[in-house]
Sequence to fold (334 residues):
Amino acid sequence: MDIGAIARDLAVAARLGARKLVRQFGASAAERTPPDLAAWRHELEAWVRTVPVESLAEHRFIELPATRPPWFDTGLQVAAGDTITWFAAGRVYLSRALDIWVPPSFQLWARAGAAGTVLRGTRDTHSFQADADGPLQLASYFPGEWSTPQGDLGHGAGDYGKVSGGLLVLLLKWRPGVEPAALLRATEKHSPLPAPVAAEASRLAATSPTPVGWDYLWTLGPGEIYRPSHASDGKPSVCCDTHGDVGILRHPAALPLQPGTFLSWRWRVDSLPIDLREDSLPSHDYLSIAVEFDDGQDLTYYWSAALAGRHRLSLPAANLEGQGDACGRALRAG
Fold:
């Protein structure tokens, strides 16, 4: 038992708890309370009845408790190439007392049959094409961690009893040839679109390309955090814009490890995402540049709010190809 780590987490938790009380006094009732899942379902049930039967092959609502380890068979049979849309709501709580929870955008994953590749969306709504035949299966991911792209758990199966809450999901299986983006917008003529439907129509109409040559770490899934851009001198750059999400963007770099090999870059940090130490689970929030080695371990450089020098970071939201830790170099504290 790491007494030091427990003490750090308790200290951070106490400060976060105090901040939660301050937020509650200043927040509206809608901001303080979780979504009303019954009302959310009722609104979408009414909307589904307006969808043309020649467009929608099947739909169903799925309740996914946070305490259930992957996987859950939805009973919806899909074939490779079938187009599926989901709308999801709910929260999975790591701590209700501290108001620490995971949204559907990160928590909800799917696969088509046991041989399908795991996938998730980048928002609480998503549309995709099945990559295999079989029953569509869903998973509430955290606190587990994938060990294979087919959705085997590396570890964490015994930790699901430590979280609470859950997700409510509406699955839509479209008939061949149906384009969800156009159809979702077309239903607006019957009634005002429910917020999830409008959100997915907007997401499908938007573009968020990943920088060329880069890819997101599959264990965390895709994102809309990083996009191609240009620096003030016109040179290509990568822009990072993140809020309430997580992602690791990687680029292959085959370099020999020998004396004289070095990594060089310039950056400007105007503010940090959190003002607490980053090596605690409740405050594990930072932006970094890292070098990942062949064994999955990495050396991470970041600006820290409270740490200085060399630290070993446990990564609660990623297993980094099966590994659980990273060596972090805090460049400056405060």
Residues 1-7, 316-325 have pLDDT under 50 and may be disordered. The chain has two domains: 34-203, 215-333. The chain has six helices and 19 strands. Residues 3-26 form the longest helix (24 residues).
